[in-house]
Write a structure and sequence with these properties.
The complex is a heterodimer. By secondary structure, chain A is an alpha/beta fold. Helices cover 41% and strands 18% of the residues of chain A. Chain A folds into two domains: 90-365, Mur-like, catalytic domain (UDP-N-acetylmuramoyl-L-alanine:D-glutamate ligase, 3-Layer(aba) Sandwich); 373-473 and 522-568, Mur ligase, C-terminal domain (Protein-Tyrosine Phosphatase, Chain A). Chain B has a domain at 2-209: Class I glutamine amidotransferase (GATase) domain (Rossmann fold, 3-Layer(aba) Sandwich), CATH 3.40.50. Chain B is 43% helix and 21% strand.
Chain lengths: 572, 322
């Protein structure tokens, strides 16, 4: 979990670096100042491979210890320890990868996109290494390499290996600097965790820095439909491959939903001149076919395009693809319109790596989704489906997938405000819960911010009595306030002397006001149990959690023996 | 009185720059005002005022301005100054309730000095100014609770700029969190019925008393001018605001004085008679939860207790009328 605390750990990383460099890396170099350059390099390499070996051993020992103590998967602790022992461990190990590495970043779709790429490349016969989902800061990347390295500081079986790293959108400049990729993929940029980043613009500034550091030989894969992402292409002298959707029938206007107009739109104005964007087709949020009303700059032509997208139930998407060299139909085994972009990004990235069409099709069609991306789990005769929703755009798209066909659904929402989720939950007011009101068969609201979400749903027009709230911890103040009931009653009687008030009536009212809709149980276990109980046998319960909510649910299901431990999951 | 009013009462809310200033879930404030009006039989019409639209003060009963990114704030600042300033000033001097959050708040002060680039001139409604001290200075981010009018307000703040008050009255005193500048424990500013604040999250859903305060002010201004009690109450509240305006930065004792609480009581009681009470259980629980989360345990207990009092009154008035 430590990888979810970016500000602290990155700072630590930065602080650590100069100190350790001066003591060990430069000392030998200084001592041998009279030696020839080649000797010096030789010496340095030997010392660095010694250090790398030490770092690998230290990191792996820490990882094993963490696993043994059941603290977690141990990859990120391995990365942290290895980076402490040898700050340049990532650079050292990554140069040994025969096929280099692919970096994937963006607000939404990192995990699924890199999953698609991994599936395609392993179908193409490569050995694919990935960092685990969520471990997308530098120590997670370091950990993924360290656990595959030998004590001599070399990677095991690096011959056919290619690594795919999903990297947090804020640390991408650092990642590009340490780990020059063969292909870099930018999926999209939405508002997410504003409490961490400040503003959306902060990230787009960092992305510009990353583009400046990117080697010219590395193709850059960008989303043509997202203005902020597509804009990056103008600063890159090398090859740029755009992907996008060319299916006007998916325009929001066709859905005839007035509420969509209020959707969270994070980029409205032209990045060149500040003019408003005009959309001829708008898919969701600010994704679509845009052009600036003032300077007329428009969406770039897409190289990898989806010309026809058809949703095939809740489980599949059928898309017609056209690239510069290929065309054909692909069935994505996932619901959710956003997965079209993820598949397109993966196709563009793998075509840039000269992968044939067959592994591309088979990789995507046989893809197994990551945890929390819609897979089914059978619990007590019900089917559980987990759909991660961590920001307004992702959330809106999940609701759109679930509530567009008029079927009643059983739903459990989990809203947490831990650091990995973002402490600020104001974004829930930008979600169109209004569309769900008619279609909620049962509703359970849980998480550290269950009250906030319940309030949001109340103001969307959902009756308080129609939802069950299971908070993560009891509200102590309720208890104290109830304990002082006697004193309150006396005061009230004074105020309302004119109206004779029965004690019993008041107690009943207190009860009804304070407790009528809140269960007396707390925590994710109870939330899950409550939601499952409310779902009739044979039906499906849709669980929609934020990031740490998903982790909690995973742990809970794991405890019940329903899912494998997450560090035992094997990437393709 | 409510029944007489309910069938024909309409309020018009002007939402300024909904497309540019929409960053922090500000839609929740509008939804809250609309629903709380609707439940009382008051129709709240929302008119969106974008860049270039004129602001005719007679058309509106209440105004809202949200927060946005620095980049989007510049054209808004220009429009506010060039096109809407006279209308806005007239509305404010005429006691129109205005809620300005974050960026909107900064633009109602004298100026905003960004980390890079030229100053943005504001309207100067609040005698205050905002300085962004550069990207290396940490932003003020986190949950925040303040005391306002003898009650608490809770929200979330996320701002890079530090606001310093001149003679402006702060909206409240920071109990936990950063507030205007993380130095002097003030949060927000007010002038007449214009309220500027850094609190979002959204502000109004979890602070139903503040939402009702705005609605009551709008109703009184539009429909209650002949009503002597209402007018005198507004005045007493207004003069009270004036007395605390002494000098910000220094913690004045007036904030905790008893006279304040007494006036607050009358205002609050007035709300109960003026506006139909609603079942705000969930609102106050969410409010208390944040307070408790921030370690303000006693404040959380107070909130739940005083809410139960109001709830009982609500229940009694219902049974009495039946």
């Amino acid at each position: 979990m430590s990888e979810q605390k970016p500000p602290r750990s990155t700072k630590r990383e930065a602080r650590k670096r100069p100190g350790s460099d001066s003591t060990e890396d430069q000392m030998p170099a200084k001592r041998s100042s009279k030696a020839t350059r080649s000797q010096r390099i030789m010496k340095r390499r030997r010392s660095s491979s010694l250090r790398a070996g030490l770092a690998v051993m230290g990191g792996r020992a820490a990882g094993a210890l963490s696993r043994r103590l059941h603290l977690g998967g141990g990859t990120s602790i391995a990365g942290i320890v290895a980076q402490r022992l040898y700050p340049d461990i990532v650079g050292h190990l990554s140069t040994q990868l025969a096929h280099g590495s692919v970096l994937v970043t963006g607000t939404n779709g990192k995990t699924t996109t890199s999953g698609f790429i991994a599936a395609i490349l392993s179908d193409a016969g490569l050995r694919v290494w990935r960092n685990r989902e969520g471990s997308n800061l530098m120590q997670g990347v370091a950990g993924a390499l360290v656990i595959r390295a030998q004590p001599d500081g070399n990677l095991r079986r690096a011959g056919q290996a290619i690594s795919i790293f999903e990297v947090d959108e804020a640390v991408i400049p650092k990642a590009v600097e340490i780990l020059p990729p063969r292909v870099a993929v930018f999926t999209n940029l939405f508002r997410d965790q504003l409490d961490r980043f400040g503003e959306v613009d902060t990230i787009s500034t960092r992305w510009r820095q990353a583009i400046d550091l990117l080697p010219e030989s590395a193709p850059l894969v960008l989303n043509a439909d997202d203005p902020t992402t597509a804009h990056l292409g103008e600063f890159f002298p090398g090859q740029v491959i755009f992907f996008g959707i060319d299916d006007p029938s998916l325009d929001l206007a066709n859905e005839g939903l007035a509420i969509e107009r209020h959707q969270a739109i994070d980029t409205r104005t032209c990045l060149h001149c500040g003019g408003e964007y005009i959309y001829s087709v708008q898919y969701y949020s600010h994704l679509g076919h845009y052009s600036c009303s003032q300077c007329k700059r428009a969406r770039p032509e897409a190289d990898v395009r989806a010309v026809k997208v058809v949703a095939d139930g809740l489980d599949r998407l059928r898309i017609q693809i056209e690239t510069r060299t290929q065309q054909g139909e692909i069935v994505i085994p996932l619901a959710g319109f956003y997965n079209v972009y993820n598949a397109l990004a993966a196709i563009a990235a793998t075509q840039a790596l000269d992968i044939n069409w067959e592994p591309i099709v088979s990789g995507i069609e046989q893809f197994k989704p990551a945890f929390g991306r819609g897979e089914r789990i059978h619990v007590q005769g019900r089917t559980l489906r987990l759909l991660l929703a961590k920001n307004p755009t992702g959330f809106n798209e999940v609701l759109r997938t679930l509530f567009s066909d008029g079927i009643q659904r059983h739903v459990l929402f989990v809203l947490n405000d831990n650091i990995a989720d973002g402490r600020d939950i104001s974004w829930i007011w930008d979600i169109d819960f209004e569309r769900t009101t008619q279609y909620l068969a049962t509703l359970t609201v849980a998480g550290t911010r269950a009250f906030d979400l319940a309030l949001r749903l109340k103001y969307a027009g959902i009756e308080q009595t129609a939802m069950t709230i299971v908070t993560s911890a009891p509200l102590r103040a309720v208890k104290v306030a109830n304990e002082s009931k006697a004193r309150n009653t006396r005061q009230q009687r004074k105020v309302l002397k004119a109206q004779a008030m029965q004690q019993a009536q008041m107690t009943a009212l207190d009860e009804s006001i304070m407790n009528h809709h809140i269960t007396k149980s707390y925590g994710i276990t109870q939330a899950l149990d409550t939601a499952i109980r409310q779902t009739p046998t044979g039906e499906t319960l849709f669980v929609i959690p934020t990031y740490t909510g998903l982790l909690e649910i995973h742990r809970e299901l794991e405890r019940r023996g329903l899912t494998p431990r997450y560090w035992e999951e094997r990437g393709p | 009185m409510n029944d007489d009013l309910s069938s024909r009462v309409t309020l018009t809310l002007g939402h300024l720059y909904p497309d540019q200033l929409n960053l922090y879930g500000d839609r929740g404030n509008i939804l809250t005002l609309r629903r709380r009006c609707q439940l009382r039989g008051i129709e709240l019409r929302v008119v969106e005022l974008g860049i270039g639209d004129a602001l005719a003060p007679d058309v509106y009963d209440i105004l809202f301005i949200g927060g946005g990114q620095d980049k989007e704030q510049a054209p808004v600042a220009q429009d506010l100054l060039e096109i809407k300033s006279i209308g806005l000033w007239a509305a404010i001097e005429d006691d129109m309730p205005i809620l300005a959050v974050c960026g909107g708040y900064q633009l109602l002060a004298h100026y905003y000095r960004p980390a890079e680039g030229p100053d943005m001139r504001g309207l100067g409604v609040f005698d205050a100014w905002t300085i962004h001290k550069g990207v290396q200075v940490p932003r003020c981010i986190g949950d925040i609770a303040i005391s306002w009018n003898g009650d608490t307000l809770v929200g979330f703040e996320n701002h890079g700029g530090r606001t310093y008050l001149g003679t402006a009255t702060p909206l409240g005193k920071v109990l936990k969190g950063h507030g205007n500048n993380a130095e002097d424990h003030t949060e927000g500013a007010m002038y007449h019925n214009a309220f500027g604040t850094y609190m979002h999250g959204s502000l109004l859903p979890k602070n139903p008393h503040f939402a009702d305060h705005l609605i009551a002010l709008a109703l009184k201004r539009t429909y209650g001018r002949s009503d002597h009690t209402a007018e005198s109450l507004v005045h007493s509240a207004g003069s009270n605001n004036g007395s605390t305006s002494s000098n910000n930065g220094i913690k004045t004792r007036t904030w905790t004085s008893r006279s304040r609480n007494r006036i607050h009581r009358t205002v609050k009681d007035d709300h109960i008679t003026f506006l139909t009470p609603l079942d705000d259980t969930l609102e106050w629980e969410a409010h208390a939860y944040i307070l408790e989360h921030m370690g303000l345990h006693h404040a959380a207990v107070d909130v739940l207790r005083s809410y139960k009092d109001v709830g009982t009154v609500l229940h009694l008035s219902k049974t009495a009328s039946v």
